[in-house]
Amino acid sequence: MKAMLVLEDGTFFEGTSFTGHGEIGGEVIFNTGMTGYQEILTDPSYLGQIVCMTYPHIGNYGINDEDIESGKIHVSAFVVKECVKTPSNWRATQSLPDYLKENNILGIEGIDTRALTRHIRIHGAMRAIISTKDLNVENLKQKAKSLPPMQGQALAYKVSCNKPYIFNNKPHEVDLKNFKWPKNRIRLVVLDFGIKWSILRLLKKYEFEPLIVPATTSYEEINSLQPDAIFLSNGPGDPEPLTEVIQTVKKLSENYPLAGICLGHQILGLALGGKCFKLKFGHHALNHPVKDLATNKIEISSQNHGFCVDISELDFLQATHINLNDNTLEGFKHKTKPIIAVQHHPEAGPGPHDCQTFFAHFKKMVKKHIKG
Ligand SMILES: NC(=O)CC[C@H](N)C(=O)O
Hints:
- With 372 residues, this protein is of the alpha/beta class.
- It has two domains: 2-146, Carbamoyl-phosphate synthase small subunit, N-terminal domain (Glucose Oxidase, domain 1); 155-371, Rossmann fold (3-Layer(aba) Sandwich), CATH 3.40.50.
- It is 24% helix and 32% strand.
- It has helices at residues 37-42, 96-102, 113-123, 137-145, 156-159, 197-205, 219-224, 243-255, 263-271, 357-371, and strands at residues 2-7, 12-17, 23-31, 49-53, 57-58, 77-79, 82-83, 106-109, 126-131, 165-167, 171-173, 186-192, 208-214, 229-232, 258-261, 275-292, 297-310, 317-323, 329-334, 339-342.
- The strands form three sheets. It has an eleven-stranded mixed beta sheet with strand order 11-10-13-12-14-15-20-19-18-16-17, sandwiched between helices. Strands 1-2-8-6-4-3-9 form a seven-stranded mixed beta barrel. A two-stranded parallel sheet has the order 5-7.
- Bound molecules: glutamine.
- The site of glutamine has 11 residues, from strand 17.
- The active site is at residues 262, 345, 347.
- Its EC number is 6.3.5.5.
- Belongs to the CarA family.
- It comes from Desulfonauticus submarinus.
């Protein structure tokens, strides 16, 4: 079934749908990972985005029950060069096309994904429409132009949980009136902007007991839970319009040890007085070199962001990591308070594990603070 992908500047790519009819829009981004498509599809940070994989052969190990990062698929559509319909892997329970079809997500193949990627790298991030119903380039270009730009969209509210929950391989809702923290664990309130399950698994591995609460939970409600520390999750969209959250985090930063990943890093940066800007094209990959400025060691990191923060004018903050591809900020800490954050993904779901020391560092920082 013929499908057309049209960018807002009128550039178009022809392909075929492997999931049936559909029409959908979103910001088109490219991910250069060779594997990890199931984690990418289910990562809530991809809400509102059409994901194009640069690796030419996607789907070869199928879909399994363990690699999901949330309860559903969040990407708007999935674009590949060639989709493998008959997977071969001992864990596979389903094929990629069946998985997308079951979840009503449009998947297209036969696209020159490298040409599309080069176009975005040269001309910057763009909105796009994919359609099997309307193949008229001019129509689709107009539709793409009328989509809301990513900048200004408070998408985190759309994927945040509605009720607090704890996590035991999947979410279990809790009634806060009867909630009791377990003994001998670090009490961690997690502000949920669309958290990935691999982050929760790692927090638990590092002795934290995460209590995940909706993004709009107030400072007073969080305070009444008497946590030892706060964690700010990853999530989709622009951090800047999340004004209510930014105000809450500002208050939290005065009284609690804090850590943030990706959108959490950006929200923390804004709450502390930094600025935010959109990158020309996002970082979506499993192989970005990040330099730890304390040790001068280079870590190969997993990345997924389109925005970036600038804290250079805040002398009470210190940059801890930078990206060696484009010198953008990859992490910072407060010079006197127990506050750390990273822009990349130390949980590496998917990706290399070089940056996992972040969780050990967070644990050490909170334990030190508890001891006083
Ligand atoms: N993975 C994330 O948390 C993404 C953060 C933010 N939505 C960005 O695109 O920059």
